[in-house]
Write a structure and sequence with these properties.
Layout lengths: L4 E5 L5 E6 L10 H10 L8 E4 L2 E8 L2 E7 L5 H19 L4 H6 L1 H11 E2 L2 E2 L4 H7 L14 H4 L15 E14 L5 E15 L5 E6 L2 H6 L11 E5 L5 H7 L2 E3 L4 E10 L7 E10 L3 E10 L6 E10 L5 E7 L3 E5 L4 E10 L3 E9 L14 E8 L8 E7 L7 E15 L4
Length: 422
Protein backbone atom coordinates (compact mmCIF):
# COMPACT_ATOMS: atom_id res chain seq x y z
CA UNK A 1 0.00 0.00 0.00
CA UNK A 2 2.73 2.46 1.11
CA UNK A 3 1.11 5.80 2.04
CA UNK A 4 3.49 8.70 2.71
CA UNK A 5 1.32 10.65 5.13
CA UNK A 6 -2.21 10.93 6.52
CA UNK A 7 -4.12 14.13 7.27
CA UNK A 8 -7.45 14.92 8.93
CA UNK A 9 -8.86 18.22 7.64
CA UNK A 10 -11.88 20.34 8.51
CA UNK A 11 -14.41 21.36 5.84
CA UNK A 12 -12.34 24.42 4.87
CA UNK A 13 -9.25 22.30 4.26
CA UNK A 14 -7.43 23.32 7.46
CA UNK A 15 -5.25 20.53 8.89
CA UNK A 16 -6.56 19.35 12.28
CA UNK A 17 -3.93 16.63 12.70
CA UNK A 18 -1.41 14.86 10.46
CA UNK A 19 1.22 12.12 10.59
CA UNK A 20 4.21 11.85 8.27
CA UNK A 21 5.16 8.17 7.83
CA UNK A 22 7.83 8.13 5.10
CA UNK A 23 9.16 11.70 4.78
CA UNK A 24 9.33 11.46 0.97
CA UNK A 25 6.71 14.17 0.30
CA UNK A 26 6.65 17.75 1.62
CA UNK A 27 3.88 18.00 4.22
CA UNK A 28 2.70 21.39 2.88
CA UNK A 29 1.54 19.67 -0.35
CA UNK A 30 -1.82 19.25 1.44
CA UNK A 31 -2.44 22.98 0.82
CA UNK A 32 -3.20 22.04 -2.79
CA UNK A 33 -5.87 19.47 -1.78
CA UNK A 34 -8.80 21.84 -1.18
CA UNK A 35 -8.04 23.85 -4.30
CA UNK A 36 -8.05 20.66 -6.41
CA UNK A 37 -11.23 19.43 -4.69
CA UNK A 38 -13.12 22.68 -5.39
CA UNK A 39 -12.04 22.57 -9.04
CA UNK A 40 -13.40 19.03 -9.31
CA UNK A 41 -16.78 19.91 -7.74
CA UNK A 42 -17.85 21.60 -10.96
CA UNK A 43 -17.83 18.21 -12.65
CA UNK A 44 -20.73 15.78 -12.41
CA UNK A 45 -18.64 13.03 -10.82
CA UNK A 46 -16.09 13.33 -8.03
CA UNK A 47 -13.29 10.78 -7.83
CA UNK A 48 -11.84 9.67 -4.44
CA UNK A 49 -8.36 10.08 -5.95
CA UNK A 50 -6.66 12.84 -7.89
CA UNK A 51 -3.14 13.66 -8.96
CA UNK A 52 -1.02 16.80 -8.52
CA UNK A 53 2.36 16.46 -10.20
CA UNK A 54 3.89 13.24 -8.88
CA UNK A 55 1.70 13.22 -5.71
CA UNK A 56 -1.62 11.32 -5.48
CA UNK A 57 -4.31 12.36 -2.96
CA UNK A 58 -6.66 9.56 -1.84
CA UNK A 59 -9.47 10.77 0.43
CA UNK A 60 -12.84 10.12 2.04
CA UNK A 61 -15.29 12.55 3.63
CA UNK A 62 -16.92 11.57 6.93
CA UNK A 63 -19.33 13.94 8.72
CA UNK A 64 -17.50 17.29 8.76
CA UNK A 65 -13.92 16.06 8.21
CA UNK A 66 -11.78 14.81 5.33
CA UNK A 67 -9.31 11.94 5.81
CA UNK A 68 -6.56 12.22 3.18
CA UNK A 69 -3.59 9.97 2.35
CA UNK A 70 -0.77 11.17 0.10
CA UNK A 71 1.47 8.81 -1.87
CA UNK A 72 4.17 9.08 -4.54
CA UNK A 73 4.46 5.50 -5.68
CA UNK A 74 1.97 3.32 -7.57
CA UNK A 75 -0.11 2.43 -4.48
CA UNK A 76 -3.14 0.11 -4.35
CA UNK A 77 -5.91 2.74 -4.08
CA UNK A 78 -8.55 0.24 -2.89
CA UNK A 79 -6.25 -0.71 0.02
CA UNK A 80 -5.68 2.97 0.89
CA UNK A 81 -9.45 3.65 0.88
CA UNK A 82 -10.05 0.51 2.95
CA UNK A 83 -7.43 1.72 5.45
CA UNK A 84 -9.12 5.16 5.71
CA UNK A 85 -12.50 3.51 6.44
CA UNK A 86 -10.78 1.31 9.06
CA UNK A 87 -9.44 4.51 10.68
CA UNK A 88 -12.98 5.93 10.78
CA UNK A 89 -14.23 2.74 12.43
CA UNK A 90 -11.48 2.80 15.08
CA UNK A 91 -12.03 6.51 15.86
CA UNK A 92 -15.80 5.95 16.14
CA UNK A 93 -15.26 3.08 18.59
CA UNK A 94 -12.97 5.28 20.69
CA UNK A 95 -14.93 8.57 20.58
CA UNK A 96 -18.48 7.32 19.68
CA UNK A 97 -18.49 9.69 16.69
CA UNK A 98 -15.84 11.02 14.34
CA UNK A 99 -16.17 14.75 13.68
CA UNK A 100 -14.07 17.91 14.01
CA UNK A 101 -14.92 18.39 17.70
CA UNK A 102 -14.01 14.81 18.71
CA UNK A 103 -10.62 15.15 16.95
CA UNK A 104 -9.89 18.47 18.72
CA UNK A 105 -10.87 16.94 22.10
CA UNK A 106 -8.64 13.87 21.65
CA UNK A 107 -5.41 14.99 19.95
CA UNK A 108 -3.14 12.83 22.12
CA UNK A 109 -5.16 9.64 21.58
CA UNK A 110 -5.49 10.33 17.84
CA UNK A 111 -1.69 10.70 17.51
CA UNK A 112 -1.16 7.43 19.43
CA UNK A 113 -3.69 5.66 17.23
CA UNK A 114 -2.15 6.98 14.00
CA UNK A 115 1.22 5.67 15.20
CA UNK A 116 -0.20 2.18 15.77
CA UNK A 117 -2.56 2.00 12.78
CA UNK A 118 0.30 2.45 10.31
CA UNK A 119 4.09 2.00 10.33
CA UNK A 120 6.33 3.51 7.61
CA UNK A 121 3.28 3.74 5.31
CA UNK A 122 2.08 0.17 5.81
CA UNK A 123 -1.08 -0.76 7.80
CA UNK A 124 -0.11 -2.37 11.10
CA UNK A 125 -2.92 -2.99 13.60
CA UNK A 126 -6.45 -1.88 12.71
CA UNK A 127 -8.43 -3.98 15.19
CA UNK A 128 -9.88 -1.63 17.82
CA UNK A 129 -10.34 -4.46 20.35
CA UNK A 130 -6.59 -5.08 20.31
CA UNK A 131 -5.71 -1.35 20.23
CA UNK A 132 -7.89 -0.74 23.29
CA UNK A 133 -5.73 -3.16 25.28
CA UNK A 134 -2.81 -0.74 25.28
CA UNK A 135 -4.06 2.65 24.01
CA UNK A 136 -6.43 3.87 26.69
CA UNK A 137 -7.94 7.28 27.27
CA UNK A 138 -6.29 7.54 30.68
CA UNK A 139 -2.91 9.13 31.49
CA UNK A 140 0.13 6.94 30.88
CA UNK A 141 2.77 6.40 33.56
CA UNK A 142 6.45 6.24 32.60
CA UNK A 143 7.02 2.51 32.52
CA UNK A 144 8.07 -0.16 30.07
CA UNK A 145 5.22 -0.75 27.64
CA UNK A 146 5.01 -4.14 25.97
CA UNK A 147 2.68 -4.79 23.04
CA UNK A 148 -0.23 -7.11 23.88
CA UNK A 149 0.40 -10.77 22.94
CA UNK A 150 -2.36 -10.59 20.32
CA UNK A 151 -0.16 -8.30 18.22
CA UNK A 152 2.80 -10.66 18.20
CA UNK A 153 1.01 -14.01 17.82
CA UNK A 154 -0.44 -15.63 14.70
CA UNK A 155 -4.05 -15.08 15.82
CA UNK A 156 -4.03 -11.27 16.10
CA UNK A 157 -7.81 -11.01 16.54
CA UNK A 158 -7.97 -13.00 19.80
CA UNK A 159 -6.21 -12.52 23.15
CA UNK A 160 -4.70 -15.41 25.08
CA UNK A 161 -5.78 -16.46 28.57
CA UNK A 162 -9.53 -15.87 28.16
CA UNK A 163 -11.62 -17.67 30.78
CA UNK A 164 -15.39 -18.08 31.12
CA UNK A 165 -17.34 -19.90 33.81
CA UNK A 166 -19.94 -20.86 31.21
CA UNK A 167 -18.66 -21.56 27.69
CA UNK A 168 -21.27 -20.60 25.07
CA UNK A 169 -21.54 -19.80 21.36
CA UNK A 170 -24.52 -17.98 19.83
CA UNK A 171 -24.92 -18.19 16.06
CA UNK A 172 -27.54 -16.19 14.13
CA UNK A 173 -28.33 -16.81 10.46
CA UNK A 174 -29.99 -13.57 9.31
CA UNK A 175 -31.43 -13.21 5.80
CA UNK A 176 -32.80 -9.99 4.29
CA UNK A 177 -35.16 -10.26 1.32
CA UNK A 178 -34.96 -7.56 -1.36
CA UNK A 179 -38.04 -7.54 -3.59
CA UNK A 180 -39.61 -5.27 -6.20
CA UNK A 181 -43.06 -6.19 -7.54
CA UNK A 182 -44.70 -4.34 -10.46
CA UNK A 183 -48.25 -2.97 -10.29
CA UNK A 184 -49.54 -5.94 -12.32
CA UNK A 185 -48.02 -8.45 -9.87
CA UNK A 186 -44.81 -9.44 -11.68
CA UNK A 187 -41.65 -9.84 -9.59
CA UNK A 188 -39.15 -7.46 -11.22
CA UNK A 189 -36.24 -7.99 -8.83
CA UNK A 190 -35.57 -10.42 -6.00
CA UNK A 191 -32.50 -11.44 -4.03
CA UNK A 192 -31.49 -12.68 -0.60
CA UNK A 193 -28.62 -11.10 1.37
CA UNK A 194 -27.51 -13.32 4.23
CA UNK A 195 -25.10 -13.03 7.15
CA UNK A 196 -23.93 -15.41 9.86
CA UNK A 197 -23.32 -13.42 13.04
CA UNK A 198 -21.74 -14.88 16.15
CA UNK A 199 -21.29 -14.09 19.82
CA UNK A 200 -18.51 -16.21 21.28
CA UNK A 201 -17.84 -16.64 25.01
CA UNK A 202 -15.24 -19.42 25.09
CA UNK A 203 -12.17 -20.00 27.25
CA UNK A 204 -8.71 -20.55 25.82
CA UNK A 205 -7.89 -20.72 22.11
CA UNK A 206 -10.65 -22.95 20.62
CA UNK A 207 -11.01 -24.02 17.01
CA UNK A 208 -14.54 -24.02 15.60
CA UNK A 209 -15.78 -25.94 12.57
CA UNK A 210 -19.04 -24.99 10.93
CA UNK A 211 -20.89 -27.16 8.41
CA UNK A 212 -23.67 -25.82 6.16
CA UNK A 213 -25.92 -27.54 3.61
CA UNK A 214 -23.58 -26.26 0.90
CA UNK A 215 -24.58 -27.42 -2.60
CA UNK A 216 -20.96 -27.52 -3.85
CA UNK A 217 -19.97 -29.75 -0.90
CA UNK A 218 -22.90 -32.12 -1.47
CA UNK A 219 -22.06 -32.43 -5.18
CA UNK A 220 -18.35 -33.12 -4.60
CA UNK A 221 -19.12 -35.75 -1.95
CA UNK A 222 -21.82 -37.45 -4.07
CA UNK A 223 -24.74 -36.49 -1.80
CA UNK A 224 -26.89 -35.15 -4.62
CA UNK A 225 -30.12 -36.28 -2.91
CA UNK A 226 -29.47 -33.79 -0.09
CA UNK A 227 -30.95 -30.37 -0.65
CA UNK A 228 -28.12 -27.86 -0.80
CA UNK A 229 -27.93 -24.09 -1.12
CA UNK A 230 -25.73 -22.46 -3.75
CA UNK A 231 -24.09 -19.47 -2.08
CA UNK A 232 -22.78 -16.53 -4.14
CA UNK A 233 -20.48 -13.61 -3.22
CA UNK A 234 -19.33 -15.31 -0.02
CA UNK A 235 -17.18 -13.05 2.20
CA UNK A 236 -15.47 -14.35 5.34
CA UNK A 237 -14.08 -12.77 8.49
CA UNK A 238 -10.26 -12.81 8.52
CA UNK A 239 -10.30 -15.63 11.12
CA UNK A 240 -11.56 -18.22 8.58
CA UNK A 241 -8.92 -20.49 7.04
CA UNK A 242 -9.60 -19.84 3.35
CA UNK A 243 -7.30 -22.62 2.08
CA UNK A 244 -9.29 -25.18 4.10
CA UNK A 245 -12.58 -23.86 2.69
CA UNK A 246 -11.26 -24.00 -0.88
CA UNK A 247 -10.02 -27.57 -0.38
CA UNK A 248 -13.02 -29.25 1.28
CA UNK A 249 -15.60 -26.46 1.93
CA UNK A 250 -15.03 -26.71 5.72
CA UNK A 251 -15.43 -23.39 7.54
CA UNK A 252 -12.67 -23.70 10.15
CA UNK A 253 -11.62 -20.79 12.39
CA UNK A 254 -10.31 -19.56 15.73
CA UNK A 255 -12.99 -16.97 16.60
CA UNK A 256 -12.53 -13.47 17.98
CA UNK A 257 -13.91 -12.97 21.49
CA UNK A 258 -17.40 -11.52 21.68
CA UNK A 259 -19.53 -10.35 18.75
CA UNK A 260 -18.49 -10.48 15.07
CA UNK A 261 -19.79 -11.33 11.58
CA UNK A 262 -18.37 -14.67 10.46
CA UNK A 263 -19.55 -14.50 6.85
CA UNK A 264 -21.96 -12.90 4.42
CA UNK A 265 -23.46 -14.25 1.21
CA UNK A 266 -25.97 -13.44 -1.53
CA UNK A 267 -28.46 -15.49 -3.54
CA UNK A 268 -29.70 -13.93 -6.75
CA UNK A 269 -32.75 -16.13 -6.94
CA UNK A 270 -36.45 -15.90 -7.73
CA UNK A 271 -38.04 -15.37 -4.32
CA UNK A 272 -41.73 -15.99 -3.75
CA UNK A 273 -43.05 -12.85 -1.98
CA UNK A 274 -43.39 -13.77 1.70
CA UNK A 275 -46.04 -11.10 2.32
CA UNK A 276 -48.15 -10.40 -0.75
CA UNK A 277 -50.01 -7.10 -1.03
CA UNK A 278 -52.94 -6.30 -3.32
CA UNK A 279 -54.13 -2.72 -3.45
CA UNK A 280 -57.18 -1.03 -4.92
CA UNK A 281 -57.20 2.78 -4.85
CA UNK A 282 -60.24 4.80 -5.96
CA UNK A 283 -60.34 8.58 -6.29
CA UNK A 284 -63.74 10.27 -6.39
CA UNK A 285 -63.73 13.58 -8.29
CA UNK A 286 -60.94 15.05 -6.14
CA UNK A 287 -63.13 15.03 -3.01
CA UNK A 288 -62.07 11.74 -1.40
CA UNK A 289 -59.89 8.69 -1.94
CA UNK A 290 -60.58 5.13 -0.82
CA UNK A 291 -58.08 2.32 -0.30
CA UNK A 292 -58.63 -1.39 -0.03
CA UNK A 293 -55.46 -3.27 0.91
CA UNK A 294 -55.26 -7.05 1.12
CA UNK A 295 -52.23 -8.62 2.85
CA UNK A 296 -51.52 -12.33 2.52
CA UNK A 297 -48.72 -14.32 4.19
CA UNK A 298 -47.28 -16.82 1.70
CA UNK A 299 -45.12 -18.87 4.04
CA UNK A 300 -45.88 -22.06 6.00
CA UNK A 301 -48.53 -22.01 8.73
CA UNK A 302 -46.07 -23.05 11.42
CA UNK A 303 -44.13 -19.76 10.96
CA UNK A 304 -45.22 -16.31 12.10
CA UNK A 305 -44.03 -12.86 10.97
CA UNK A 306 -43.52 -10.40 13.84
CA UNK A 307 -43.68 -6.59 13.94
CA UNK A 308 -45.18 -6.29 10.46
CA UNK A 309 -45.54 -2.77 9.06
CA UNK A 310 -47.19 -2.06 5.71
CA UNK A 311 -46.43 1.52 4.69
CA UNK A 312 -48.95 2.81 2.13
CA UNK A 313 -48.34 6.23 0.49
CA UNK A 314 -51.25 8.69 0.37
CA UNK A 315 -51.62 12.06 -1.47
CA UNK A 316 -49.83 14.98 0.20
CA UNK A 317 -53.16 16.88 0.50
CA UNK A 318 -55.05 13.98 2.16
CA UNK A 319 -56.98 14.83 5.32
CA UNK A 320 -59.00 13.16 8.12
CA UNK A 321 -58.38 9.48 7.56
CA UNK A 322 -60.85 6.76 8.65
CA UNK A 323 -59.69 3.13 8.90
CA UNK A 324 -61.17 -0.34 9.26
CA UNK A 325 -59.06 -3.51 9.54
CA UNK A 326 -59.51 -7.22 10.30
CA UNK A 327 -56.17 -7.29 12.17
CA UNK A 328 -53.80 -4.80 13.78
CA UNK A 329 -53.97 -1.00 13.84
CA UNK A 330 -53.63 1.77 11.25
CA UNK A 331 -52.34 5.30 11.80
CA UNK A 332 -51.96 8.24 9.45
CA UNK A 333 -48.45 9.79 9.41
CA UNK A 334 -48.87 13.12 7.55
CA UNK A 335 -45.18 14.08 7.74
CA UNK A 336 -44.38 10.95 5.68
CA UNK A 337 -47.51 11.24 3.45
CA UNK A 338 -48.28 7.65 4.46
CA UNK A 339 -50.51 5.46 6.54
CA UNK A 340 -48.91 2.59 8.45
CA UNK A 341 -50.76 -0.66 9.01
CA UNK A 342 -49.09 -2.45 11.95
CA UNK A 343 -49.54 -6.05 13.08
CA UNK A 344 -47.62 -7.52 16.01
CA UNK A 345 -47.92 -11.01 14.56
CA UNK A 346 -48.95 -12.30 11.14
CA UNK A 347 -49.23 -16.14 11.04
CA UNK A 348 -48.41 -18.06 7.86
CA UNK A 349 -51.22 -18.80 5.40
CA UNK A 350 -53.43 -15.93 6.65
CA UNK A 351 -55.12 -13.07 4.83
CA UNK A 352 -56.16 -9.72 6.31
CA UNK A 353 -58.02 -6.70 4.90
CA UNK A 354 -57.74 -3.00 5.58
CA UNK A 355 -59.95 -0.20 4.29
CA UNK A 356 -59.06 3.49 4.49
CA UNK A 357 -60.93 6.63 3.51
CA UNK A 358 -59.36 10.11 3.19
CA UNK A 359 -60.91 13.51 2.41
CA UNK A 360 -59.23 15.51 -0.35
CA UNK A 361 -59.53 19.24 -1.10
CA UNK A 362 -62.34 19.88 -3.57
CA UNK A 363 -60.06 21.99 -5.80
CA UNK A 364 -59.90 20.46 -9.27
CA UNK A 365 -56.21 19.99 -10.15
CA UNK A 366 -54.26 17.73 -12.45
CA UNK A 367 -52.89 14.80 -10.44
CA UNK A 368 -49.20 14.87 -11.29
CA UNK A 369 -47.94 13.38 -8.03
CA UNK A 370 -45.58 10.44 -8.27
CA UNK A 371 -46.96 7.21 -6.84
CA UNK A 372 -44.37 5.74 -4.44
CA UNK A 373 -44.55 1.97 -3.87
CA UNK A 374 -45.96 0.25 -0.80
CA UNK A 375 -43.18 -0.84 1.57
CA UNK A 376 -43.34 -3.85 3.86
CA UNK A 377 -41.32 -4.47 7.03
CA UNK A 378 -41.29 -7.77 8.92
CA UNK A 379 -39.24 -10.32 10.83
CA UNK A 380 -39.82 -14.09 10.72
CA UNK A 381 -37.93 -16.07 13.39
CA UNK A 382 -36.94 -19.76 12.99
CA UNK A 383 -37.16 -19.40 9.18
CA UNK A 384 -34.85 -18.84 6.20
CA UNK A 385 -35.96 -18.10 2.65
CA UNK A 386 -32.94 -19.75 1.04
CA UNK A 387 -33.26 -22.97 3.05
CA UNK A 388 -29.73 -22.64 4.46
CA UNK A 389 -29.10 -24.88 7.48
CA UNK A 390 -26.35 -25.24 10.06
CA UNK A 391 -25.55 -28.98 9.91
CA UNK A 392 -23.04 -28.87 12.75
CA UNK A 393 -20.91 -26.53 14.86
CA UNK A 394 -17.95 -28.32 16.46
CA UNK A 395 -15.90 -26.70 19.22
CA UNK A 396 -12.40 -28.14 19.72
CA UNK A 397 -10.25 -26.93 22.65
CA UNK A 398 -7.25 -28.70 24.19
CA UNK A 399 -8.70 -28.68 27.74
CA UNK A 400 -11.73 -30.58 26.36
CA UNK A 401 -14.44 -28.48 28.04
CA UNK A 402 -18.08 -28.82 27.00
CA UNK A 403 -19.62 -25.77 25.29
CA UNK A 404 -23.20 -24.98 24.39
CA UNK A 405 -23.85 -23.81 20.80
CA UNK A 406 -27.14 -21.92 20.22
CA UNK A 407 -28.37 -21.48 16.63
CA UNK A 408 -31.11 -19.08 15.53
CA UNK A 409 -32.61 -18.34 12.09
CA UNK A 410 -34.25 -15.01 11.19
CA UNK A 411 -35.67 -13.72 7.91
CA UNK A 412 -36.42 -10.01 7.63
CA UNK A 413 -37.28 -7.47 4.98
CA UNK A 414 -34.58 -5.70 3.05
CA UNK A 415 -35.67 -3.28 0.31
CA UNK A 416 -39.18 -4.79 -0.06
CA UNK A 417 -41.44 -2.75 -2.36
CA UNK A 418 -44.72 -3.31 -4.18
CA UNK A 419 -45.84 -0.80 -6.83
CA UNK A 420 -49.49 0.31 -6.85
CA UNK A 421 -52.10 1.17 -9.44
CA UNK A 422 -54.85 3.72 -9.07
Amino acid sequence: MSASAIYILDMKGKVLISRNYRGDIEMNVIEKFMQLLLEKEDESQLSPIFQHGDVAFVYIKYNNVYLVCTTKINANVILVLSFLYKCVRVFCEYFKELEEESIRDNFVIVYELLDELMDFGFPQSTDSKILQEYITQEGHKLEEVRPPPALTQTVSWRSEGLKYRKNEVFLDVIESVNLLVSSNGNVLRSEINGAIKMRVYLSGMPELRLGLNDKVLFETTGRTKNKGVELEDVKFHQCVRLSRFENDRTISFVPPDGEFELMSYRLNTQVKPLIWIESSIEKHSHSRVEYMIKAKSQFKRRSTANNVEIIIPVPSDADTGRFKTTCGTVKYVPEKNSMIWSMKSFPGGKEFLMRAHFQLPSVQSVDLEAKPPIQVKFEIPYFTTSGIQVRYLKIIEKSGYQALPWVRYITQNGDYQIRTTS
